[in-house]
Design a protein that fits this description.
By secondary structure, the chain is an alpha/beta fold. It is about 40% helix and about 15% strand. The strands form 3 sheets. Strands 5-4-3-2-1-12-11-7 form an 8-stranded parallel beta sheet. Helix 14 links the parallel strand 11 and strand 12. The longest helix is centred in the middle third of the chain and has 26 residues. About 50% of the residues are buried. It is globular and about 60 Å long. It has a single domain, classed as TIM Barrel (Alpha-Beta Barrel). It binds 6-O-phosphono-beta-D-galactopyranose.
Amino acid sequence: MLHKTLKPFPDYFLWGASTSAYQVEGAALEDGKGPSCQDVKDIPEGTADLSVSVDHYHRYKEDIALMAEMGFKSYRFSISWTRILPEGTGEVNPKGIAFYNDLIDECLKYGIEPIVTMFHFDMPAALDKRGSWSVRESIDWFAEFAAVLFKHFGDRVKYWLTINEQNMLTLVGPVIGTMYIPQETDNLTKEIYQQNHHQLVAQAKAMQICHEMLPEAKIGPAPNISLVYAASSKPEDVLASQNYNAIRNWLYLDAAVYGIYNNLVWAYLEELDAVPEISQEDWDIMRAAKPDFIGFNYYNTATVAASDGTESLDPAADQQTSRGESGFYRGTDNPHLPKTEFGWEIDPIGFRATMRELYSRYRLPLLVTENGLGAYDSLEEDGKIHDQYRIHYLQDHIAQIQEAITDGVEMLGYNPWSAIDLISTHEGIKKRYGFIYVDRSDDELKTLKRYRKDSFFWYKKVIAANGADLTD
Ligand code: BGP
C-alpha cells in the first residue's frame, strides 16, 4: 500500500531507548547484590567481563541527564533480580530497592516514563542451583519477585515488561549465556520446552498479579519478533516459513495473549517427543491472563526454505542469524538485504511487515522495546563520533513505523537499543549500539567517560519534532 498522506506520530508516543541491567550497570556484586547466571558464566574470548560493564550503577544520574537532554519520553531498563533478592527468593536487599527507587525518581524528575523489564537474561545463580526454569517452583519464584517489584515500584512505574526475549532464551540460550542444562537429560528439546512452558506460566501469573495489585498499570511480554519470509514462492518454502514463524514468533504471543499453544508448534513438539508437562492449573493461569500491549524487539526478518532433511541446529547461530532444523525449515540468506558489520541483515520494510502482522493477529497496541544497529564506532580526536550509518538505520526504521501507523497499527512508542553503549550479549563492547559513547574497550576500562555521538544530536531533533522530521 502506497499511502498518499502519512498519519503523524501520536502525541503520547514514547520516544526513548533501552538497556538491560547486566549489560549496563556493573557493580555486579556490590551493595548486597547476589550473582546471576551472567556473573558466573564463561566470558567469550576477547569480550568484556560484566563486573563493571559501563558503570551505570554509579553514573546513572549523568546518564539520565544525557537522556533528558535528548528529550527522552521513556527509558526502558531492566531490574536485576539478584540486586533485589540476592538468593532469588526470600530476603529483600534494601540497597537494591534504594538503587531502583533512585533510578526511577531520577527519570521522573525529567518527565521520563520508566518502562521496566522484570527479567532480562539474568537468572539468579542461586536459583540455577535449585534447577532454574526446569522446575515448577520457578513459577512461584518469579511470582514472588514480581510481587516485590509491584509493591515497591508500582506507585511510579506504569509500564511493565515480563520476560525479555523468552523466545531467544529458548532458541539460542547457550549463545547468550542463559541456558540452564541439567546434568541428566536424554531429550534436550523436551527439557528446553519444559523450561519455556514454566516461563509462559510464570509470565501469565505475573500479569495477573500486576492487574490485581496495580489496576492502573500496563504489562506486556517482550519477545524478539522477526517475520519469517519464504525463500521463494515454492509452496514447500511457504510451509517452511509458516513452521518457523510459529516456532520463533507465534508460540510466545499466542500463549501470552490467548493462553493457548500454537497448533503448528504443538505438532512440532509432538514430532520431537518434546511436549512439556502441562497441568490443568497451568492452562487456567494462562487463559486468565491478558497483556495490555505487546512489547517486541525487532532487528531484522528471517528467511527460510523447505528442509532437505540435512539441517541441524547451528550452535553458533545467535538471535538474528539463520538456523535450520531437519524436517521443518532451512535458514537462508535473503539476497535482497544488506548486512551489518556483524552479519545481521537490515530490513526496514520487514519492520513494517512485522508490525502489520502483529497487530492483525493480536489487536493490541505495540511498543517497540528494541531495534538498532551494532557497529564499530570510533572516537575521533575532537571527541566526536560520526555514526552516520546508525542514523541511516534508525531513519529507515522510524519511517516504517509511520507507514505502519498509517496502515492502522496502534503504536505506543519506540525504544531502540541502546540508550548508551553497553556490553553486547556475546560480542563485547566493540559492538556498539548507543546514542552515547562510553570510553572503554573490551580489555581496558579506560576513563568510562561519556560522549555524545552524531546520532545523539539527530535523535534529539527527531524527538523534538515528534517524528515529523527525520533528516540529518
Ligand atoms: C537482544 C537483547 C539485548 C541486546 C540486543 C543486541 O537480543 O535483548 O540484550 O544485547 O539483542 O544483541 P547483541 O548484543 O547480541 O548484539
